[in-house]
C-alpha cells in the first residue's frame, strides 16, 4: 500500500516537472520569454499551482539544454545565444551528428517512414500558404526528429536532442531557412538525397541544409 502511494506521488512529481519544463521551454523558444528575462521559482510555482520542487527540477532541465543560465547570488535567466555560438558550435555539432546517423540509413526508410516525412513536407507547404512560421518550424523539427529517431544510435540521438532546443530557438529568432515558401522544396530535396544512399551527396546536402542556409540568413 505504502509502495503504491509513493509510486503515485513520484509519478505526479515527474509529471509536474515535465509540464513546467515543457511550458517554459516553449515560451523561451517562441520568444514569449525574451533572452535575459529572470525567472523566479516562487512566481512559477504560483503560476502552475505546484510546489517548488518540480519547478526547481524543471529549471535544472532547461539549464542542461542551454536555455537557462544560473548565476550565483543573482538568479536564473533566459540564455542569450550569440551568432558565433550558433555558427561555430551548435550548427556544426548538429551537422556532425546528422551526417554520422544518416550516411548509412537508406535501408531503414520504410514506406511508412517515407509517408511520415512526406506528411511533414505537406504541412510545410500548407504553413507557407498561411504564412505560419510556427507550423513550418515545428514540421521542420519533426522531419529531422523522424530521421534521427530512425537512424541514430541512442547515444547519438541523445547528443542531438541536447542541442535541438537551442536550434529551435534560432529558427524562431532569425526565421525560416531561407524563406517560408522554400522549406517544403528543400526538405523534399533532402529526402530524395537520403533515399539515394549516396554518402557524398548526403554529406553535401546536409552541409548546405544545416550550415550554408543559416549563414545566408545571419548575413541578411
UniProtKB/TrEMBL annotation:
Keywords: DNA-binding, Transcription, Transcription regulation. InterPro entries: GntR_C, TF_FadR/GntR_C, Tscrpt_reg_HTH_GntR, WH-like_DNA-bd_sf, WH_DNA-bd_sf. GO terms for molecular function: DNA binding; DNA-binding transcription factor activity. Gene3D superfamilies: GntR ligand-binding domain-like, Winged helix-like DNA-binding domain superfamily/Winged helix DNA-binding domain. Residues 14-81 form the HTH gntR-type domain. PROSITE patterns: HTH_GNTR. PANTHER family: GNTR FAMILY REGULATORY PROTEIN, TRANSCRIPTIONAL REGULATOR, GNTR FAMILY. This is Unannotated protein.
Amino acid at each position: 500500500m505504502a509502495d503504491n502511494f509513493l509510486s503515485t506521488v513520484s509519478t505526479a512529481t515527474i509529471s509536474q516537472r515535465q509540464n513546467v519544463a515543457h511550458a517554459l521551454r516553449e515560451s523561451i523558444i517562441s520568444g514569449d520569454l525574451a533572452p535575459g528575462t529572470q525567472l523566479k521559482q516562487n512566481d512559477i510555482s504560483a503560476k502552475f499551482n505546484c510546489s517548488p520542487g518540480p519547478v526547481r527540477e524543471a529549471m535544472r532541465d532547461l539549464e542542461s539544454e542551454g536555455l537557462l543560465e544560473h548565476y550565483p547570488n543573482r538568479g536564473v535567466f533566459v540564455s542569450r545565444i550569440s551568432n558565433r555560438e550558433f555558427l561555430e558550435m551548435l550548427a556544426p555539432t548538429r551537422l556532425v551528428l546528422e551526417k554520422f546517423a544518416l550516411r548509412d540509413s537508406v535501408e531503414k526508410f520504410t514506406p511508412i517512414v517515407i509517408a511520415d516525412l512526406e506528411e511533414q513536407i505537406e504541412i510545410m507547404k500548407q504553413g507557407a500558404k498561411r504564412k505560419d512560421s510556427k507550423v513550418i518550424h515545428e514540421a521542420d523539427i519533426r522531419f529531422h526528429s523522424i530521421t534521427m529517431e530512425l537512424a541514430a544510435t541512442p547515444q547519438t540521438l541523445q547528443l542531438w536532442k541536447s542541442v535541438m532546443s537551442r536550434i529551435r530557438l534560432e529558427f524562431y529568432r532569425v526565421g525560416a531557412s531561407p524563406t517560408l515558401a522554400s522549406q517544403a522544396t528543400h526538405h523534399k530535396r533532402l529526402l530524395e538525397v537520403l533515399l539515394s544512399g549516396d554518402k557524398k551527396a548526403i554529406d553535401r546536402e546536409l552541409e548546405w541544409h544545416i550550415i550554408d542556409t543559416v549563414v545566408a540568413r545571419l548575413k541578411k
